[in-house]
Design a protein that fits this description.
By secondary structure, the protein is mainly alpha-helical. 49% of the residues lie in helices and 6% in strands. The strands form three sheets. The protein has a four-stranded mixed β-sheet, with helices on one face. Strands 1-4 form a two-stranded antiparallel sheet. It starts with 18 loop residues before the first helix and ends with a helix.
Length: 492
């Protein structure tokens, strides 16, 4: 074997991620509102791009293709522009399944402590500047009261305490720690905190739920020794141990029920009445409607921004005096603008194509409801439309579909399968959750245990284990049979 140096030529193939291709892939994962922000940045960066301000409604064309371009044609750039799918396969790529899970506090549920707010809008459009100026945060509301109630050196302590109060209205730092930070006595901090706890809203500045409810009970002149002992043993109330509570408080059934009703009228999170960001409504990216000829699927053009290439401006610049560097920069701007237009157009076509297949696979859901939702995977949709699974994953991320049955995330239609008890077709996990929710909602005076739920579900044709029922029940935020029985006893 020769050890002398030599020069060899080797030929190999590799998939190269160009900046334009990375941009096109990124566009797939963005919602219409995120696309709008992205285009605004591109328009600011590229002088050849402009976003026309027009009220014209443009209907997207229905996409029907029998022979979509393959991955090889896409990478090579030889496929027709209108048929190039933003579909890539990478061995090192990972796909994240987004999901939403909600949880609740057992104590708040036991007490029935809930809060909410609402508002009404007039017939005329509101002045956004006025609304922005009129909204007062919790910190500002407390600081305004502290300016009147606290003076001198204590005003600095009060300001520091207010800074440590979270959005719910609770003090998140111990008074001893605050005293050490400010170099004052802990008793002085406690005295200023007592003043802060008299501010509106009632209950603000508390260090735990018991203290928050105690402040509100004092305000309502209901803080007697029995109520004090009840607030000291809220854990027993959460567990529904009413017998022990009655012995500790020294009251009968009627007095205990009266105290519990009093607690339900208090606000466990008084700070939530002020400040905080307004909840943003989910804007659908797609509309699905039943038509005479089948299903109509359209993009939400109201939120889909438009962008054009200013050819006239390019002509003026290209025919003006310019050096080699400026000419190259201008050509780069034109190429980038043209690529963005094509990428946005292909993004729309790809989304329509994936959504069409989802509606085709889940037609029974759109016709009859969640009980008829079928098991579906990303791979099955990808195989049907001859794209890669990663493309379908990107298209269905952060996208919402509006139909006659409501607003759903595209990920909602991809669920695992539960085998049928009679050996028939498998059913969707969401259909099983819907059946569990319906059984618990109609359980009546007799609380259904998980074992009973299994028997009832098997009678409906669902072959499901008890641990699966418990998992689905917890995922829906529904308590166990013991918790539901205690909550009913407290409500009674």
């Amino acid at each position: 074997m020769s050890l002398a140096p030599r020069l060899d030529i080797r030929q190999s193939q590799s998939l190269v991620m160009t900046p334009q291709l990375q941009q096109a892939i990124k566009l797939l994962t963005l919602s219409n509102l995120e696309i709008e922000a992205f285009i605004a940045d591109e328009v600011e960066r590229n002088p050849l791009l402009e976003a026309p301000a027009t009220d014209e409604v443009v209907r997207p064309e229905r996409v029907e293709r029998d022979a979509p371009a393959g991955a090889d044609e896409l990478v090579a750039g030889t496929a027709p522009a209108e048929d190039r799918a933003l579909d890539l396969d990478y061995a090192t790529e990972s796909h994240q399944q987004d999901s939403v899970s909600d949880g609740g506090a057992a104590l708040d549920g036991a007490l029935g402590l809930t809060g909410g707010g609402g508002g009404a809008m007039g017939a005329e459009a509101p002045d956004l500047d006025t609304l922005s100026e009129g909204e007062v945060s919790l910190g500002e509301h407390l600081a305004a009261q502290a300016a009147v109630a606290v003076g001198g050196a204590d005003a600095f302590i009060a300001a520091h305490l207010i800074d440590q109060i979270d959005e719910a209205g609770y003090l998140t730092v111990a008074t001893a720690e605050i005293a050490a930070r400010l170099g004052v006595e802990a008793e002085r901090v406690e005295a200023v905190l007592a003043i802060v706890q008299t501010f509106d809203p009632t209950g603000v500045g508390a260090r735990d739920l018991g203290e928050c409810l105690a402040i509100q009970a004092r305000e309502a002149d209901r803080y007697d020794p029995c109520m004090a002992r009840l607030l000291d043993h809220l854990d027993l109330l959460a567990r529904g141990d009413l017998g022990r509570l009655k012995r500790i408080c020294g009251v009968d059934d009627e007095d205990m029920a009266d105290m519990i009703r009093e607690l339900r009228g208090y606000d466990p999170k008084p700070g939530c009445r002020y400040g905080g960001e307004a909840m943003q409504a989910v804007v659908p990216d797609l509309f699905v409607a039943r038509t005479r000829n089948g299903w109509g699927i359209e993009l939400n053009v109201a939120t889909l921004p438009r962008v054009l290439v200013n050819r006239r401006y390019y002509h003026e610049l290209s025919h003006g005096p310019q050096d080699k560097a400026s000419k190259a920069w201008l050509n780069d701007c034109l190429a980038s603008a043209n690529w963005l237009i094509k990428a946005l157009d292909q993004r729309q076509r790809t989304i329509i194509r994936v959504a069409t297949e989802i509606v085709k696979q889940q037609e029974a859901f759109f016709l009859h409801g969640v009980a008829h939702l079928k098991p579906l995977t990303l791979a099955k949709v990808a195989e049907a439309i001859e794209m890669h699974e990663s493309t379908v994953s990107r298209v269905t991320s952060n996208k919402y579909l509006s139909c006659a049955r409501g607003l759903f995330e595209l990920k909602y239609f991809f669920t695992s399968a539960i085998q049928a008890a009679d050996g028939g077709d498998a059913v969707s996990a969401e259909a099983v959750k819907s059946a569990i929710r319906a059984l618990i909602a109609g359980e009546g005076a007799k609380i259904l245990s998980d074992d009973t739920l299994v028997e009832l579900l098997q009678a409906k044709g669902f072959d499901i284990a008890r641990r699966t029922v418990a998992k689905y029940r917890e995922a829906m935020g529904i308590g166990s049979s013991v918790q539901r029985r205690r909550a009913r006893a407290l409500a009674g």
